[in-house]
């Protein structure tokens, strides 16, 4: 048995559509997913019933549940968790260990009570941030470790627990304070 044949035995892709140039690493489990062209799925990804645009990257140990939609050129780093009803726009970034929550009172067990998490185009979610059912506006930035319980305006920078707006990405004073 060749190395290529052994690698195919170590990954599971059931009922999936993989666009041209999309690569799936060994030990990934994908079921009923659609990937656009030139996507990269790393090892130990668990993904079922989700749709991905073109040039998306999904890092190791990420879990992406059913009814998730991810836009083009978005990066989902390792250990991220994206539950059902998550929507992520184009050119977004979800950092390591970010967790999204669709159930305000877990475990409800009732999908009719779940709520969506929406991340706009160009938004960035920091390492270990937790997002409750909220909408993060376009080009917003969620700081590392933030717990987001309210919607984030477009271009806003939020941090803390609970997360609060501390500035805006196009605010020169915020950039100047980062250099200090």
How would you portray this structure in words?
The chain contains 2 helices and 24 strands. The chain is mainly beta and 180 residues long. The chain has one domain: Hexapeptide repeat proteins (UDP N-Acetylglucosamine Acyltransferase, domain 1). The longest helix is centred in the C-terminal third of the chain and has 8 residues. It starts with a helix and ends with a helix. The relative contact order is 0.09.
The description of the largest β-sheet is: 9 strands, mixed
Structural class: mainly beta
List the strand order in the largest sheet. Answer: 3-6-9-12-15-18-21-23-24
**Rg computed from alpha carbons, rounded to a whole number of angstroms:** 17 Å
Taken in chain order, the helices and strands follow as: HEEEEEEEEEEEEEEEEEEEEEEEEH
The dominant shape is globular
Low-pLDDT stretches are none
Number of helices: 2
CA-to-CA gap between the ends? 58 Å
Number of beta-strand segments: 24
| Number of separate structural domains | 1
CATH domain fold name: UDP N-Acetylglucosamine Acyltransferase, domain 1
Which CATH first-tier class would you pick? Mainly Beta
Name the average pLDDT. 92
């Amino acid at each position: 048995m060749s190395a290529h044949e052994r690698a195919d035995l170590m990954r599971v892709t059931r009922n999936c559509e993989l666009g041209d140039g999309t690569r799936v690493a060994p030990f990934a489990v994908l079921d009923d997913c659609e990937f656009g062209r030139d996507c990269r799925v790393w090892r130990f990804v668990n993904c079922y019933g989700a749709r991905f645009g073109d040039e998306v990257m999904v890092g190791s140990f990420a879990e992406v549940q059913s009814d998730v939609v991810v836009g083009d050129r978005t990066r989902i780093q390792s250990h991220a968790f994206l539950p059902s009803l998550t929507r992520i726009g184009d050119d977004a970034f979800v950092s390591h260990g970010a967790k999204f929550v669709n159930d305000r009172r877990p475990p409800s067990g009732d999908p009719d009570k779940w709520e969506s998490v929406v991340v706009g185009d160009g938004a960035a979610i920091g390492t270990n941030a937790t997002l409750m059912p909220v909408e993060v506006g376009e080009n917003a930035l969620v700081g590392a470790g933030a717990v987001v319980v309210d919607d984030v305006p477009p271009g806003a920078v939020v941090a803390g627990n609970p997360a609060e707006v501390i500035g805006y990405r196009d605010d020169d004073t915020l950039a100047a304070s980062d250099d200090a």
